[in-house]
Design goal:
Layout: E1 2-7, H1 11-18, H2 21-27, E2 31-38, E3 41-50, E4 53-67, E5 71-80, E6 83-96, E7 100-112, H3 120-150
Helix pairs in contact: 1-3, 2-3
Length: 163
């Protein structure tokens, strides 16, 4: 599995947003809760469906090999009565011109159980849709944080008009 997403913000801000468990929980499609269980290790509950196969998954999510603000390794192990998902990937943040950041992921995913019976093409499409949803929600969170650091809370810029 691989993909790239552009963010209109500095790399440090994108890193802080991507590694904030409260924000991550809000951005994961179907995430019902996510709680810290150890150093950079979380337990999450999420409702996920692929085609006609739907289930509530319990997932262990670990962030390891962190090299602020460049990259980290993400390890996910999720189980449900409908199957399991194991993922291991590298999340890399690259500085781009004009204060932008490119986030790239590259990793492997294993799926088993009834969930695997829906077929690799449908699984890939569903995984891509989930990732795109997650990163679009992350973009919105980064934009909100960027706006919060640009102006004091409660202060908004008013457009000016020329007469």
């Amino acid at each position: 599995m691989q993909g790239q997403w552009q963010f209109e913000a500095e790399r440090e801000l994108v890193w802080q947003t991507l590694t904030d468990p409260n924000i991550v929980a809000q951005c994961i499609p179907g995430c019902e809760k996510m709680e810290l269980t150890g150093d950079d290790t979380y337990l999450a509950t999420m409702a996920v469906g692929v085609g006609s196969v739907k289930g509530r998954f319990t997932a262990t999510i670990r962030l390891t090999d962190q090299q602020f603000p460049e990259r980290y390794r993400l390890i996910v192990e999720a189980k449900s009565p409908v199957g399991f998902v194991k993922g291991d990937g590298i999340i890399a943040l690259q500085e781009m011109p004009e204060g932008q950041t490119q986030v790239s992921i590259e990793g492997e995913v294993q799926v088993g159980g009834t969930l695997a019976s829906v077929g690799s093409r449908l699984l890939q499409a569903a995984a891509n849709a989930q990732l795109n949803h997650f990163f679009e929600a992350m973009r919105q969170q980064v934009a909100q944080r960027k706006g919060a650091t640009a102006a004091p809370e409660g202060v908004t810029e008013k457009p000016t008009a020329e007469v």
